[in-house]
Design a protein that fits this description.
3-stranded antiparallel beta sheet; single chain; extended; about 90 residues; about 30% helix
Length: about 90
């Protein structure tokens, strides 16, 4: 688009290293989706990231993830879904 411009993005050091998540819990209200990313290693788990987004932004995120998964599979082959995690009780 003609009105778009590049916006520099900075990643703070503590965010740059990333966190590992092997489970995700999704909750929603009318106004937002809450994505809790967990690292579950029995006998316990920890929420190591929480991302809150609008429904419209979540839809764009799903499209971007889907597109990237298609491109990944074109390069590296099909990804088999993993087994679902055991039922874990999550409360905050």
């Amino acid at each position: 688009m003609a009105n778009e411009r590049e916006i520099p993005i900075k990643i703070p050091e503590d965010v740059l290293r990333g966190v590992y998540a092997n489970q995700m819990v999704v909750r929603h209200s009318r106004e937002e989706f809450i994505l809790d990313f967990l690292n579950v290693c029995p006998p316990e788990g920890i929420v190591n990231a929480r991302v809150i987004v609008s429904p419209g932004h979540l839809k764009r995120m799903i499209a971007a993830l889907s597109d990237n998964l298609v491109r990944y599979e074109q390069s590296f082959g099909n990804v088999a879904p993993s087994d679902p995690p055991p039922d874990t009780r999550f409360s905050n």
